[in-house]
Write a structure and sequence with these properties.
alpha+beta; Aminopeptidase; 2 domains; 13-stranded mixed β-sheet; 10 helices; 28% helix
Amino acid sequence: MTEAIQHRLSPAALIPIRQAHDRRQLETLLGVDRAYAAYALSHLESGPFEQSEFWVAESPAGTGVVLTSDAIGSTLITSGDPTAVGAILSLHPGPRLAYLSTASPEHMAAIRRWHHVDDPLTMRRMSVRLEGFTAIAEESPDVSIRRLSDLDLHAVNALYAVDERSGQYTGPQINNAVYFGAFVGGELASIAGTHVVSPMMSIGVVGNVLTHPAFRGRGLATYVTSRVTSTLFDLGCELVVLTADPQNTPAVHAYRRLGYELGAPIVEARLRRRDPVGLGAWWRRMKAEHIQGFEAVRVASAPAGDLDGAPAHGKGQSQ
């Protein structure tokens, strides 16, 4: 089927789109920058994989991948060539409401064409391998570091409550992840945990790092992040990543002390699909299959997202 499609295509005119089910092929497509693609790669694990859809498109400039998943909330991830990503989103824009957990700034024009983008964060991926990791232990006698469990749930949620962006956690979420806390005088003062631990991909993603304002400036976040990172390597991870605000100089400096290196820029945001019912995408899919016999999008020499036949939703609107 693929060969037949290729013979029927004019590469400069049509971008073929297909749903991918081969884990090895997807790992190859996503693995060009494993740190950038850490969240997407983690969805190749059994469990998340069955709750996810991977769409792949080949443009003359390269390959694009769009992932939608319900494994941990409603998630959308984009990777690869921006024109290919835009072509996929024109037919498969994803759920009505979703969290954009990984996108390149180059993808945002196409994403904004099909989604309202709320609360965007421009971040940087950082990563470290075992050979580059430098563990940093606590130096103050009044600070104790230990792994957290459901027995610490009240203290965990009380600490996260100081950050309005943080949610409430459950005992199983703490037990099934890797969380370490720094205690000062018996009070939980700083915490770090994991978003993802992927044994199949040998990747761990550190996140939810927070220090109570009363205890900042003492290096506590460095200590707990060090312990989480070290534990992930002990569990067999070959690559550990996190996402940092490049404007948060103290945090970036702390992570660099541990050996983390700055990588690709990342955009995170809350998405609201512009077509809430999804009739537009459905019609475009039906039209593509009826006219061409397979899913493909015709593109002109325009920026990603400016696809022939796609409605110009939201032009001139502020986000």
